[in-house]
Amino acid sequence: MNQPTEPKADKSGVRRHNLSLVLRTVHDAGETTRAAVAARVGLTRPAVSSLVEQLLDLGLLVESGKTFSGQAGRPGTVLKPADTGPAGLGVEINVDYVTVCVVDLTGTDRVRRTERLDNRAADASEVLARAARIAAEALDTAAGRGLV
Questions:
Q1: Are 94 and 16 in contact (CB under 8 A)?
Q2: Which of 63, 81, 99 is the last residue of a domain?
Q3: Within the chain, which residues score under 50 in pLDDT?
Q4: Which whole-number Å values give the CA distances from 105 to 27, 85, 102, 108, 110, in the listed order?
Q5: pLDDT of residue 3
Q6: 5 in a domain, yes or no?
Q7: pTM summary value
Q8: Which of 117, 83, 123, 84 is CA-nearest to residue 99?
Q9: Can you give the residue range of the structural domain that contains 21?
Q10: In this predicted model, what pLDDT tens digit does every residue of 49-77 receive, in sequence order?
Q11: Are residues 76 and 116 in the same domain?
């Protein structure tokens, strides 16, 4: 008897997957509508609307006006990734500099700090402490811009 290699997805696992699918689809499109997302991912419009509402509540997506397709029916509401809220932090330590970058969900650099230093002879703990200080400053700046 063959045993499955992975457990079946439960209801919450399927929802998480679908939330990720919708968020990724909007991110890849830049701007789109619920109807376009539903057509692209193969979910029903009501299912996509429910997922979009949750992503809006989480601050991961925003609505930005209406779009007219030129066809009969109501205009669609434009969705796009939020440029405030969750953000990513990157730290690069090189031999002669430390750079820290904060990006929003659109992938746009929102804060970038570089300090030129000669790290070759520095103790690793000293270099990491500098990187942490620069990262903390960048995160403070990002928080002032609505990023967390």
A1: no
A2: 81
A3: none
A4: 8, 8, 10, 7, 10
A5: 65
A6: no
A7: 0.74
A8: 117
A9: 11-81
A10: 999 999 999 999 999 888 766 666 677 89
A11: no
Q: Which single residue is written with the structure tokens 């499955």?
A: 4
> Of the residues 66, 81, 96, which one is the last residue of a structural domain?
81
Cα–Cα distance list, 8 to 4, 18, 41, 50, 118 (Å): 9, 15, 21, 23, 52
What distances in angstroms separate CA 52 from CA 24, 43, 58, 66, 107, one per listed residue? 12, 12, 10, 16, 20
Our count of domains for the chain comes to 2
Clarify whether residues 55 and 18 are in a common domain.
yes
Element (H, E) at 88: strand 88-93
Give the pLDDT score at 71.
64
Sequence letter at residue 117: L
